[in-house]
Amino acid sequence: MNLILIPGLLCDPDLWAHQREHLAALADIRVADITGGETMDELAEQVLASAPDRFALAGLSMGGYVAHAIMRMAPERVERLALLDTSGRPDTDEQRERRTQLIEMSRIGKFRGVTDRLLPILVHEDRLGDTALTDRVKAMAERIGPEAFHRQQKAIMSRPDSRPQFASYDLPVLVICGRQDALTPVPLHEEMAEAIAGAQLAIIEDSGHLSTMEQPQAATALLRQWLLYG
Questions:
Q1: 33: domain range?
Q2: Is pTM, for the whole model, over 0.90?
Q3: Which of 108, 106, 98, 120 is CA-nearest to residue 180?
């Protein structure tokens, strides 16, 4: 089986390090690069251009938004879908305004990636003192850098509402959320799971938004079951 993993905003393959190592026996795994487009459709097209004919697809946060775009474009190519710490909803006006301000700040030389101030909305409060984890999160953001950050924010701001397409999803779907996810909380995942026929909902305890890094064993175990049994 082929498996494509899509990272989130300011994230890179390290987001999926544990899953890549421990699911390698089950699938041919590749991590998509979502730094080169300014719309979800552009990013989806780029992922599809280098993807095998058929594949399992998992996306976290912004990666979930790209996964929804792929499901709009080429649902026949996706064998199964996992949506982690994400949403089907578009940005609110308030969210778009906040993203615009962040883009402007970074353009005048104030790109700070993921700072100590932002970490509390990304990871569980009990992990804020785990420098091994928080340093990895900060390092991902630095590797992505400000120019790709601008493009990613533009794509997120302009994304459509994916909820109307959920009724058309005809494949095994797993919806995963960290219990303490502050950015895309549990009710958004309940909404997706209820709207997608046959979708399975799994909550990872003691985890914030970056569940694959915060509770890697739990996330990997869930994805293993999904790959094996749907």
A1: 2-91+155-229
A2: yes
A3: 120
Q: How far is CA 114 from CA 15, 100, 108, 118, 184, in A?
A: 14, 17, 17, 6, 17
Q: Does residue 144 form part of some domain?
A: no
Number of independent structural domains in the chain: 1
Nearest partner of 140 among 102, 106, 114, judged by Cα: 114
For residues 7 and 227, what is the distance between their CA atoms, to the nearest angstrom? 18
- Domain contains 125: no
From the CB of residue 118, how many other CB atoms can be counted at a distance below 10 Å?
A: 15
Task: Quick: pLDDT tens for 10-39.
Answer: 999 999 999 999 999 999 999 999 999 999
Q: Please report the sign of the dihedral spanned by the C-alpha atoms of residue 47, residue 69, residue 73, residue 152.
A: negative
- Position 105 scores a pLDDT of 72
Whether 133 maps to a domain, the answer reads no
CATH number of the CATH domain containing 32: 3.40.50.1820
Residue 222 lies in a domain: yes
Location of structure tokens 């494949």: 171
Exposure string of 160-179, with b = 16+ CB inside 10 Å and e = fewer, is bebbebbeebebbbbbbbbe
Q: Could you give the C-alpha distances from 68 to 6, 22, 219, in angstroms and in order?
A: 11, 25, 20
Tell me which H or E stretch contains 78: strand 78-84
CB atoms within 10 A of CB 45: 15
Residue ranges of the chain with per-residue pLDDT less than 50: none
